[in-house]
Amino acid sequence: MIPLIIDTDPGVDDAFALALALASPEVDLRAVTTVFGNVPLASTTDNALRLLELCGRPDVPVAAGADRPLVHPHPHRARYAHGSDGLSGRASTLPTPSRAPAEVDAVTLMTEVLTAAEQPVTIAAVGPLTNVALLLAAHPSVRSKIGRLVVMGGGLDVGNVTATSEFNIWSDPEAARRVLVEEDLPTVVVPLDLTLRCGVDLDWLAALDAASQVGSALVGLTADYQRYYQRMGWQGTVLHDAVAVAEAVSPGLLTSTSYPVDVDCTTGPARGALLADRRSALISTESGVDQRRRVDIALDADLDRVRAFVLDRLRAL
Questions:
Q1: How far apart are CA 169 and CA 193, in angstroms?
Q2: Distance between CA atoms of residues 131 and 34, nearest Å
Q3: How far apart are CA 239 and CA 52, in angstroms?
Q4: DSSP structure class, residue 77
Q5: Domain map of the chain by residue range?
Q6: What beta strand segments (E) does the chain contain?
Q7: Is 11 left (phi over 0), alpha (psi -120 to 50) or beta?
Q8: Could you tell me if 127 and 86 are in contact, meaning their C-beta atoms sit under 8 angstroms apart?
Q9: Would you give per-residue pLDDT tens digits along the chain (317 residues)?
Q10: Which residues pair with 33 in a beta bridge?
Q11: Beta-carbon neighbour count of residue 219 at 10 Å?
C-alpha cells in the first residue's frame, strides 16, 4: 500500500484527483489537507469534505491550512475556470458532509500522520505549496518520513495565468521556491506541458458519466470548466491534478527527466515561473548551475494510457 496525503484546493480537477486516489486499491489515503487557491480556504475545505462524502470515504480526516501566501497577497482566485464555488457552482449538489474538519490545522495533521507512519508517505501537492513549505520549515524532522513529493505545478514552455506562470506556483512563488529549490526531497513535478496534452474529450466524459452515480456527479461538476477550455479550442476538459495523482498512485506512469530548477520570486512579469535548466550537462556544470537542486519533471507519457488509467479507476467507484 502507498500511504498518501493529498494537499489540495478543490477545484474541478482536484475533485477528479481526490476521486482517483480513493478509487485506487493500492493507496491508503491518510489525510486530505486544504489550502487557498482556486477559491478561498472555506470553500476548498467544504469541497474536500463533500467530495469525500460523495466517494463514500468521510472517514478520511480533512484539515484546513493556509488561507493566504507566505509573503504577498493572492491577486485573484480562479473563478473564471472553476466557477464561483470552485466546482462550477454545483458544490451544493454534492452530499452534505457528515463530519467537520479536523480541529487541528493542516500542518499539524500532516505532521501527525508522518510521525506515526511506519513506512515513507507520499504527498501529492496539487494546489499552492504554502502548506508544504510551512510543514518543512516548522517540522524538519518529518522530512525522513516523506518518501516522495508529487507536485502539480509549473509550465516550462507555457503558463496559464501569465505567459510564463502556472496557477499553483504563481499563487505562492516563495513557498514553491522553498519546497522545490531549498529542500532536498525525492520530487516529481507534473507541469502544464504534460497535463495539457492529457486533456480528455467529450466521449471520455460521457463514458464516465454513464458508469456510476459518482462518475455522473464528477462530470456534473465540469460545466464551467468545460466552457473555459472551449474558449481555448478544446472540446472536453483538462484534469491537471488527476494526472499528478495518477503518478503518485502509479509511480512511473509518467516519464520524467531530472533538471536543476529555480522559481522566479521577483515582482516582474515572470513572477511564479518555474525555471528548469535544460541545457547540456557540460554547459550546466561549467556555469555552476548544476550545483543547484535537481527535481524530476514529468514531460512525457503514453497519453492514451494515462487517460485510460484515470477513466478505468474512476469508473470503478
A1: 14
A2: 8
A3: 18
A4: -
A5: 2-315
A6: 2-8, 27-34, 62-64, 121-125, 146-152, 187-190, 200-201, 236-237, 254-263, 274-276, 294-301
A7: left
A8: no
A9: 999 999 999 999 999 999 999 999 999 999 999 999 999 999 999 999 999 999 999 999 999 999 999 999 887 666 677 878 999 999 999 999 999 999 999 999 999 999 999 999 999 999 999 999 999 999 999 999 999 999 999 999 999 999 999 999 999 999 999 999 999 999 999 999 999 999 999 999 999 999 999 999 999 999 988 888 888 888 999 999 999 999 999 999 999 999 999 999 999 999 999 999 988 665 556 565 556 679 999 999 999 999 999 999 999 99
A10: 7, 63
A11: 21
User: Are 121 and 3 contacting, i.e. CB atoms less than 8 angstroms apart?
Assistant: yes
pTM above 0.90, yes or no: yes
The values of phi and psi at residue 256, to 5°, are -115, 155
Are 300 and 5 in contact by the 8 Å Cβ rule? The answer is no
Residue 88 burial (CB < 10 Å; 0-12/13-18/19+)? buried
The distance from CA 192 to its chain's CA centroid, rounded to whole angstroms, is: 11
Domain 2-315: give its CATH architecture. Answer: Alpha-Beta Complex (3.90)
What DSSP letter does each residue of 206-232 carry, written as one string?
HHHHHH-HHHHHHHHTTHHHHHHHHHT
What residues are labeled active site?
240
Please enumerate in sequence order all residues whose Cβ is within 8 A of that of 41, keeping only pairs 6 or more positions apart, or say none. 34, 35, 64, 65, 66, 67
Are the C-beta atoms of 56 and 39 separated by less than 8 Å? no
Strand pairing class (187-190; 294-301):
parallel
- Residue 316: all three cell numbers together: 470503478
Residue keyed to cell 518543512: 136
Q: What one-character-per-residue DSSP string does 242-258 give?
A: HHHHHHHHSTTSEEEEE
